Amino acid sequence: MVVKQTILHDKHVQLGAKMVDFAGWHMPVQYVSIVEEHNTVRNGVGLFDVSHMGEVFISGKDSLEFLQKIVPQDISKLEYEKAVYCQLPNKNGGLLDDLIIYKLGINYYLIICNASGIEGDVNWMAINAKDYDVKIDNQSHNYSLLAVQGPKADELLRTMGLDTIQDSFTIKSAKILNHKMYVSRTGYTGEDGYELLVENKFAEDLWDKILEYGKPFGIKPIGLGARDTLRLEAALPLYGNDLDMETTPVEAGLSWSLPRDKKEDYNGKTVITEQLANGGQKKLIGIKMLDKNIARHEYEVYFQGEKVGYITSGGISPVLGCNIAMAYVKNIKEICTGSIVQVMIREKLHDAEVVKRPFINKRNKVRN
Amino acid sequence: MSITEKILCTKTHEYILKNDDGTYTVGLTDYAVEQLGDIVFLELPETGTTYSKGDSFAAVESVKAASEIYMPISGEVTDVNTALVESPETLNEDVYEKGWLVKINPTGDTSEQDDLLEYEDYKEEVE
Fold it and tell me: Which residues on chain B are in Cβ contact (under 8 Å) with A292?
């Protein structure tokens, strides 16, 4: 397989980034230090190249009906210029991907999906589009996506001339330094921030200018390593780790995103509706390690001497100063907030406490 | 003579350094630590434990990943860098002076060192 590069690839190399293969893309994992980059986003502002992610535009007179069919969320309630977090279930409720859907106009929507999901998602959409008058336009190769994240992100973009006022989860067509782009107040860090969707030809200039204007704010480029620790503290799921074809959105702890009253049929509705009432086979929990050991993806989880599940994502929490993880465990009520479970690490069991997710709140307020 | 001229390295990124008293200091190469990134956890064995060449005797974790550390030669652990377990991030600054892992009394034949590499050859091999 040919490893792909974003338009900004050479910028990362020039900045001295350590590059790794991620979902078929050659991407920066860190520029200097993951912990330093993590703290920069929590306390100031950081710049991410997430151009590997997919952009799929949906248009045509049946756009709404089509989207209603493919996601559990109620897209009829999505207002103009608003965004909603969604999943893409198969007929059994297992997940092909998770996405954000943006309403750009009447019968005009944007889907941003994971890099690893683009091809499968588009194929799945095409299969589901048979009975609808809808155009599925995969524009991933023509767009770059830059994320400006952190408490100082808004102020920075204002100094660059961002000319719109936006609430969280809104998207607007806006201008920054005379480049036209979509500006969305979303992100994957648990911090305030924006994602800037630009045509490839503007990406390099925009990247340079953000770093230049960001200097007084202490901006740093941020790699995928810190993106992972940031999203873990915020308990945001990562497809492939926390979500997969064998996992429903209810099991993944995403019930908050699922409407109970959606009338339209959608893929996986029978299973998801049943699980919303009775729970799934497994459930996602957050844990905090009680010693210095780190729970990692696929490590086994034990409760009262019995193997009950496995870690999906785990690592350090620079903000909390301890190690945290998410895990799937048997859906039994005995495992709840405050319970002690064990994680098998290098053939030894290590205690961990079940805690609430997210591990930290927005604005760095530490959760007790 | 600089320290890198005195050490021998494994392809799995450990080094040994012969001390005047006949013991060997075992550690991780600077290249290994650079590749791992921010070191956040270290697990070391207890004094008196014996290992054969190639045995996993310690574990190191960076933000990114967990890695096992293997014995370059057979030996009995005579000293453990307990200060390093308390502040494993020291490894990111210095792997030779403050960042050594254990000292061992060799229990095998010197021929165990035949497949170890001099630092320059090691760097060429891994880079």
Answer: 41
How many domains does chain B contain in total?
1
Query: Mean pLDDT throughout A78-105?
Result: 98
Cβ-Cβ contacts under 8 Å for B29 (sequence gap 6 or more): B9, B13, B14, B15, B95, B119, B122
Q: Do both A152 and A217 map to the same domain? A: yes
**B49 in any annotated domain:** yes
The number of C-alpha atoms within 13 Å of B4 and in the hemisphere containing its C-beta is 10
Q: Does a structural domain hold residue A19?
A: yes
Q: pTM of this prediction?
A: 0.93
Instruction: Give the range of the structural domain holding residue B70, as residue numbers without chain letter.
Output: 3-110
| Closest alpha carbon within chain A to B37 | A33
Separation CA A26–CA A21 (nearest Å): 5
List chain B residues with CB under 8 Å of A22. none
Q: Which of A34, A315, A346 sits opposite B59 (nearest CB)?
A: A346
The CA distance from A219 to B116, in Å, is 44
Q: Give pLDDT tens digits for A14-56.
A: 999 999 999 899 999 999 999 999 999 999 999 999 999 999 9
pLDDT at A323 over 80: yes
User: Which positions in chain A touch B59 (Cβ < 8 Å)?
Assistant: 346
Flag if A346 and B40 touch (Cβ within 8 Å).
no
Residue B117 counted as domain residue: no
Domain of residue A322, CATH code: 2.40.30.110
The predicted complex's ipTM stands at 0.84
B100 occurs within a structural domain: yes
Nearest CA in chain B to A36: B38
Q: Are B12 and B67 in contact (CB under 8 A)?
A: no
| Chain B residues contacting A via beta carbons under 8 Å | 37-38, 40-41, 43, 59, 61, 63-66
Range of the domain at A335: 281-364
Q: CA-to-CA distance for A111 and B25, rounded, in angstroms?
A: 56
